[in-house]
Request: fold
Amino acid sequence: MPRIKKVLAVETSCDDTSVAIVDHNGFVYFCESQNQDALHEPFGGIVPEIAGRNHTHHLLPLIDMALKTEPKGWEAIDAFAVTHRPGLVGSLLVGVVTIKSLALALSKPFIGVNHLEGHLLAPFLRDAHYQPLENFNFPFVALAVSGGHSSLYKVSGLGQYEVLGRTVDDAAGEAFDKFAKMVGLGFPGGALVDKKAKLGRRDAFAFPRAMLHQDNLNFSFSGLKTAALKVVQSMTVNQLQSSLVDLCASYQEAIVDALIKKLEMALDQTKLDHFVITGGVSANSRLRERAEELAKKRGFALIVPPLRYCTDNAAMIAYAGIQRLNRGEESEDHMGVSPEVTI
Ligand code: KG4
Ligand code: ZN
Reply:
């Protein structure tokens, strides 16, 4: 039996406050998050000051809720895990200081986890309603796409992550959100663009696919955003309304094309036949459809974890943390936070 059987973890790196209790097998006993979309929507993007302030309101009630699900209370928790980088510093601080205080007061170990490592290990999470593919294991290629990050990794084991490619400008989610704002769909707009795109023609507008013919595995979405802006600015309000679904379908297709092409190149380069798509953008129905087609066509094993483990959540932080703790690692009392994105 491993030394650490259950951890309580906290994730507050951006605007979602999340708390989870997970065991060493990746079984999620509790995972609840409080999102702040409504508070940031009027500003068309995340306001760091508001995000940090609201974690303070939500975190302790969520921890309290988590503990109520454990008949033995604190006794059932062997250690703590918390995201300590990367992210908004004012947001990270709320989680880190809370977890350090609990660890000190209860004389239990704690560990700081890299948020990106959490996303990469999310495919190993399971719960009462979900079980990942049997036999899915390292090594695999991971496409992590969200509002804050878009990268391709080779994941060879715990702590063995190689960045194969990354966006050179906007993250894929950011490209969706900026477009949604441009056409008046609100924030965060990825899901709304996805919904409209289902009704439109994917070839109605010829949007650019940057870097597609380069043999590196990087993406770029800023040229696409500028191309869309030019089209939108050339339209009257009525024209925009009548071609909105076509615009959404064509814009979405340009993003998905770039992601899928580079993913396929990554699989070819690494000669791996297992892959994972994670991060908030993995909710995109067209991206899922194209990834499933790719897996089927090439006979590859694909995991897209359920959305609750793809978007920012504390269960993935708990899992990464417990694996490291059971390897004998733990963080020091003076551990800090950092916006540094390296993994
Ligand atoms: O992982 P996540 O919840 O938070 C970050 O770490 O950013 O990802 C949020 C991002 C947002 O940009 C949102 O617009 C995008 O994921 N997103 C989508 C969809 N659902 C969420 N993008 C495209 N299609 C969707 N269905
Ligand atoms: Zn994230």
Observations:
- The two ends are 29 Å apart (CA to CA).
- The mean pLDDT is 95.
- The pocket of zinc ion (ligand 2) is lined by residues 115, 119, 146, 148, 279, 312 (CB under 6 Å).
